[in-house]
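Consortium newsletter contribution from the modelling node. Members have asked for a concrete example of what our holo predictions look like. Here is one, prepared for the adenosine monophosphate complex that several groups have been discussing at recent meetings.
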Amino acid sequence: MASQNPLDISTRFSQLPSAFFTAVKPQPLVNTRWMAWNASLATQLGLPHFAPTDDLKHQLVGEAEHPLFSPLAMKYAGHQFGSYNPDLGDGRGLLLCELSDSTGTVFDLHLKGAGLTPYSRMGDGRAVIRSTIREYLCSEAMAGLGIATTRALGMLASDTPVYREKQEFGALLLRVAESHIRFGHFEHFFYSDQLAELSLLADKVIEWYWPELSSAEQPYAAMFQQVVNNTALMIAQWQAAGFCHGVMNTDNMSILGQTFDYGPFAFLDDYDPNYICNHSDYQGRYAFNQQPRIALWNLSALGHALSPLIENKQIEAALGQFEPLLQQYYSQHMRAKLGLHNTLAEDGELFVTLFELLEQAKPDYPRFMRGLANIDKDGEQAVIDLFIDRPAATAWLNRYLARCALERDEEGMAVPADERCRKMRMVNPKYVLRNYLLQNAIDKAEQGDYADIEQLARVLAAPFDEHPEDEMLAQLPPAWGKGMEISCSS
Ligand code: AMP
Ligand code: MG
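And here is the predicted structure:
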């Protein structure tokens, strides 16, 4: 067990050579106040000395020193919409410190929206209230769904004006992640020909996150395989959950395969595979159904950046594993969502017809999946009612239920519908962070009312459970809130 001694901190990133970062202090904001505090995460991380106090607020905005913080802006680069940009880095976020949780796992405490850094380029170094709430709630929603993600410990609003499409106000997000190392960190050292730093970074990633790989025959190749694997798992989870990230630039890809840098993301309402949530993504590069292909593209970019360290054929071999791994993970997740744990010859056909039905009819995706999981309680009609073409839905449903009847448990016994459905409810959420819910929470928060944020955070931490008092959060979106396109400005 790691001790709770505040001195028991690791400052490992700040001990890297200066090419990795610049030390920067946060810049003050006017009249900051706490919008949310994630007490359960603080407890889980063993951070009793962290609480949403005035002291912490002053320390976060640089008005007072915090004994644990030695803030720094990381240098990285990355491919944005397919083009390499060497000038990226933490332009508005700072790594405050690294801490150990009660299991000894080290995590980063990062402050997003902290002010200007040497990597701010034309930006103002700020994040607005709207985007901060979006990241806070979505990272907690993803955690509730069991999808690898950065986390949110708290957030602050302020009265400092910040200019986007209109005037908004500055905010701060206290982000927690096992790593803030991105694909773009490696790309930076590769493209700037700093090969000693490139291999040092790879050594540190192995030492910090995957020490068991240091004894592999080819540790760097093993590290890359691990990134490919983790990314495949993350993307499979996104696709199964109907999550659309929106800006899968390589600077937004975590080396650990955790969902990272929430911007114009969305969860699917209607099942539209071509859905583009990012208002600025004119070509649909990051459309929902493009995410697997883009993840592979990003991994290829990372592989290229690692080419001084790993033989080409090993890079190719690791990349070649991406699609089979993705298929395997996606299939596992979709099978669990459908309650089909046995593998039967006819299953491929059942899946093909399922996606044909979904793509053609575009029912509400979360409702449809939860409807299948509730068939024992609510019956088939509740699912069929989601479709205009009811005969098509009925035909598929009959086929699906006939397949369910063939399901056998480990003892070879038929699986009763209520047992199947009980398990399905544990992987098909009733509550999903739909964009309309977020928009309502943001509108209220901008008036100083944070009740919706608290309610959403609480419910989305357990999205598979019933929350009778919060039933309205499970409603279908109103017409204005369906398939929203979200501004990239944040
Ligand atoms: P993002 O699109 O949020 O992933 O950011 C891409 C790059 O732009 C990163 O280097 C960010 O740090 C930087 N950036 C984004 N917004 C701002 C801002 N308002 N001020 C300074 N830098 C920013
Ligand atoms: Mg980013």
